[in-house]
Amino acid sequence: MYNNKYVNEWVEQMAALTQPDQIVWCDGSEEERERLTKEAVSTGEMIELNQDVLPGCLYHRTLENDVARVEGRTFICTERKEDAGPTNNWMEKAYAYAKVGHLYEGAMKGRTMYVIPYIMGPASSEFSKVGIELTDSIYVVLNMRIMTRMGKIAMDFLGDSPNFIKGLHAKADVDPENRYILHFPEDNTIWSINSAYGGNVLLGKKCFALRIASWLGLKEGWMAEHMLILGIEKPDGDIQYITAAFPSACGKTNLAMLIPPEKYQKMGYKVWTVGDDIAWLRIGKDGRLWAVNPEAGFFGVAPGTSMKSNPNALLTCQANTIFTNVCLKDDKTVWWEGMNKDVPEHAIDWKGNEWTPDLGIKAAHPNSRFTAPAKQCPCVSDKFDDPNGVPVSAIVFGGRRAKVAPLVYQSFDWEHGVFVGATMASETTAAATGAVGVVRRDPMAMLPFCGYNMGDYFQHWLDMGKKIPNPPKIFNVNWFRTNDEGKFIWPGFGDNLRVLLWILARCNGEADAVESPIGYLPKPEDIDIEGTDIDFETLKGLLSIDKDSWAEEVKDQEAHLAKFDKLPAEITAQYEGLKKRLGL
Ligand code: GTP
Ligand code: SPV
Ligand code: MN
Fold first, then answer.
1. Which pLDDT tens digit goes with each residue over 214-238?
2. Residue 311 phi, psi (nearest 5)
3. The domain 5-45+70-220 belongs to what CATH superfamily?
4. Is the pTM for the entire model greater than 0.90?
């Protein structure tokens, strides 16, 4: 037990509700990691991987019905429905406590309750915040250990303050029919039950650092965003930072760790990773926007991660990593589709079944993931632990669009940039349950993660823009345009640096642009394609705007905007402006 009376009282109450056999207070020590690992391995909850090849690494499978976030069962529980808004699932607060509280009754009987204190943000930062997660899953404890600054360090940070986010997670029967991910922003509380998968149960991540934090940001004048943070070092040693919001499984981890094309490496360009999923943004004393990554690890998509696509990610997860729902090879190492050409002749797939290539099914689940300490990343930024984070030069929005959206364009100004973010669209991925490949509008990649009314969220963006004396410039990118054969046209990955360099050049007043109805487009000659396999005509195509597709796009945007009940007038005006510029 720690000596914060607010924590102790609450743990006592939750224990009275869930009735665990015992309570273990986590301290974050190495001894604790070893003890819990041993226990999880002995019960079969986790499998120890080949320690010669993957030291400190563990393997875990979740149930077949529990492999992604469940947006349909994720709720914002406030007193008034309008505070959650029409795009969030809402449950009345008292009703939610009663209904789901019932499911927690005795849910930890025969189990151990682990108390996990953790900090979101560097321990040295006045902006960091403490959460405490109660869980009956060792898998969760070991993941939180990697994803956050966890244990005694968090209790020291908290001191005798009552200001912590209360998270209660119980695996219960992992029953999808009784699965609930509930957020009570008015009470700093998160309840998760009947799941054991990532974003549903690692409560510091999406539940706290985005849904609860976005609410806190609204009240306190800052922003919590689904954004990567990266630094680009020029040959002269100067580093500029970019944040980018792409929906789940649309390339944040990859962009955050990109390796410059050979030509640029030779010139001395380097990329540094500050974060791959979440950014907390505040106005700095210098009048710029500053970004902190509240997390300490990466919970990254495994399939497609290779020495070719993202060597830094692969190198990060060679030790002290937890692999979830990937393929387990006979030599107790791991594999996934797109890792390399060494397809195992025999293995155990993510469902725990014997697997051979001729079965024609995937060995790893498309949303299988690695949990790895950020500090192990070869390109981790030396600002990773900086209490103030890094100053942001550009904010980039983007998604998967087979057509319509050009490779890159710049918004006319902040307000127009907010409109570009608010109408962002992307084809859905395996990161959430449901159909894959369907175009969905996902404003700022936050539709599933905003803890309050999206109309108020857009207004908050507009208000922040007015308050930042020297705001970042706002851009939109699309790496995913396809040709008639359905193949990606733009090479992507490391070559995305070519686009980022244009973005920075624009921020620095070093590049021209062509004004178009949707924003500023690059002059094709300003995007360097030397050393890629695309030619100038293809590049021109990637930067083109098709009038008919945009007429359709605008129609779809109108239907999208009609879904919000508190849409700021500025957004409607931006929409009208776009229509007019397109001659519609
Ligand atoms: P979350 O962790 O779910 O928030 O996802 P993320 O945005 O970090 O996605 P991630 O970087 O893991 O990318 C997911 C998928 O996008 C992988 O299959 C990648 O191979 C693919 N991808 C990433 N960058 C590119 C790119 O530049 N071009 C193409 N074609 N695919 C990409
Ligand atoms: C995402 O889905 O955007 C993720 C993975 O980053 S999860 O933690 O499951 O939300
Ligand atoms: Mn994410």
1. 999 999 999 999 999 999 999 999 9
2. -55, -35
3. Phosphoenolpyruvate Carboxykinase, domain 1 (3.40.449.10)
4. yes
